[in-house]
Design brief:
Elements lengths: L8 E3 L2 H11 L12 H10 L1 E2 L2 E2 L6 E3 L2 H9 L5 E6 L2 E13 L2 H9 L7 H8 L1 E12 L2 H17 L4 E6 L6 H13 L2 E9 L7 H15 L5 E8 L8 H12 L3 E5 L5 H4 L6 H7 L5 E5 L2 E4 L4 E4 L10 E3 L2 H9 L11 H11 L7 H8 L11 H13 L5
Helix pairs in contact: 4-5, 8-13, 13-15
Length: 396
């Protein structure tokens, strides 16, 4: 619906809309509404909401002069339209407005208000000094449909033990595969939450989604894994991420959250190489949080191993360093198959570099073995066959 100029309006961005929708769907329960000033003060001081860990007050504080003018004019009971990209996406019935300190809120979210921090930089621009609370409703089909999809899959599979993984998969590699398989071994159903950020850093979300889906559909048992987008807004920043991930996973219906030891927020809770404080931070969320070891490829073991179980030194280890693998991909190179499955590499490269090769069919027929039959091949087929040629090692 196109916005109307006649009514009071608050203009919100995609991050605010996504977060409002998460709360509306009960996915960050016990938080179920915008917090009052009294609740905000209590949460700021205790880091608890209704006895459950919650890192900061849940507030709506949109920036901009138009929003400021609107907020200053609101009276209890006023209905204000919520507008995103010139479209009315919901309404809010004002109950209370109050001033906040943007600098303090930034510190509450990120643990710092240092302007050189990238998260602080981006959030500062979208943060106003007046908060509004009251009942609201927003339309956001992505989150509504994701929640229904997971609920339907749990019901369909009669899953009694559901595990969650939260992945950026930027890009998806063999270590991610091992984590998913390990989770399947321990669960009736695995929910993979794929982070969908509001930035353009790294691979596009659709490319990452398709590459994981390729693996799930072709190399895992049917009805064991469901892939769900999780929009990675500012509320999941830094050391807050572990608590928020736990809440979201629990409210989607998961019983376990499995995380890697490089998970954001985990470092804050590590103490003398124990996980006690991780469980302390999530014990009242009623979800079992566990970690998996760091995986490497050992050229002595000749397979993927955890650093905890491998007896060989680090000089024998190949690490699954996402940034380095991404550099290869973004340069148009196929990572070795010990780092990424060839079908995954092919899916990503064909999406990143469409129509890269002139006369693809001629090139394919000239280089690849075939049965003498004329068949059309895609760039994805070409990359898969090319990796087979790379693996050929003997000319004797």
């Amino acid at each position: 619906m196109v916005s109307s100029k006649r009514n009071k309006q608050l203009h919100i961005d995609g991050e605010a809309l996504s977060t409002l929708a998460l709360v509306q769907e009960g996915l960050i329960a016990p938080v179920s509404k915008l917090m009052t000033q009294e609740e905000a003060i209590e949460v700021r001081e205790t880091k608890l909401y209704k006895g459950v860990p919650f890192p900061f007050p849940f507030l709506l504080t949109p920036s901009g002069e138009k929003n400021k003018t609107c907020l200053e004019s609101l009276k209890k009971g006023d209905v204000v339209e919520l507008v995103h990209q010139k479209n009315i996406i919901g309404t809010l019935t004002a109950d209370e407005t109050f001033h906040i300190d943007p600098s303090d809120r930034l510190k509450c979210i990120y643990g710092t208000n240092d302007p050189s921090h990238p998260g602080v930089q981006s959030t500062k621009k979208r943060l106003g000094s007046i908060a509004v609370t009251g009942d609201y409703h927003v339309e956001y089909p992505l989150i509504t449909s994701s929640k229904k999809m997971v609920q339907d899959k749990i019901k369909e599979t009669h899953a009694q033990n559901v595990s969650a993984l939260v992945l950026a998969a930027n890009p998806f590699n063999r270590a991610h595969e091992r984590m998913i398989r390990q989770a399947i071994d321990q669960s009736d159903l695995v929910v993979v939450f794929l982070l969908k950020p509001f930035t353009n850093h790294g691979l596009r979300y659709d490319i990452r989604y398709d590459s994981i889906l390729k693996f799930i559909e072709n190399f895992l048992p049917a009805n064991k894994v469901v892939l769900v987008p999780l929009e990675n807004s500012y509320i999941f920043a830094g050391y807050n991420e572990l608590i928020l991930d736990s809440l979201v996973a629990k409210n989607y219906g998961c019983h376990n959250l499995i995380i890697g030891k490089n998970h954001a927020g985990l470092g804050l809770f590590y103490d003398h190489d124990t996980l006690n404080s991780v469980f302390d931070a999530t014990k009242d969320i009623e979800i079992n949080v566990s970690t998996v070891e760091q995986y490497v490829y050992c050229n002595k073991c000749r397979t993927l191993v955890s650093m905890k179980t491998c007896p060989h030194g680090q000089h024998h280890h190949i690490h699954y360093h996402s940034a380095s693998i991404l550099k290869l991909i973004m340069s148009g190179m196929m990572p070795p198959s010990i780092l990424m499955r060839r079908e995954v590499s092919a899916s990503i490269l064909s999406a990143l570099f469409p129509e890269r090769f002139e006369h693809l069919q001629e090139l394919y027929d000239a280089l690849m073995p075939n049965d003498g039959l004329m068949e059309e091949h895609s760039e994805e087929d070409f990359y898969i066959k090319l990796m087979e040629l790379y693996k050929t090692s003997s000319l004797t």
